[in-house]
Amino acid sequence: MDVRVAAGDLAQHEADVLVVNLFEGVTSPGGGTGAVDQSLGGAISSLIAMGDIRGKAGELTMLHTFGKLRAPRVLVAGLGKEKDFDLDAVRNLSANVVRHLRKPGVKTVATLTHGAGIGGLDPQGAAQAVAEGAVLGGYRFLKHKGTGTKDDDRGEIATLVLVEHTAGKVASLEAGVARGVLLGEATNFARDLANAPSNHLTPGDLAQQAWEMAARSGVECEVLERADMERKGMGSLLSVAKGSHQPPKLVRLSYRGKGGEGYDIALVGKGITFDTGGISIKPAANMEAMKADMTGAASVIAAMQAIAALKPKVDVVAIAPCTENMPGGGATKPGDVVTAMNGRTVEIINTDAEGRLVLCDAISYAKELGARAIVDVATLTGAVSIALGDVCFGVLTNNDGLAAKVEAAAAAAGEKTWRLPMFKEYDELLKSDVADMKNVGTRGAGTIVGAKFLEPFAGDTPWVHLDIAGVDMADKDKGWVSKGASGYSVRTLVNLAVSLGG
Ligand code: BES
Ligand code: ZN
Ligand code: ZN
Question: What protein residues have CB closer than 5 angstroms to ion ligand 2?
Answer without folding.
Answer: 275, 352, 354
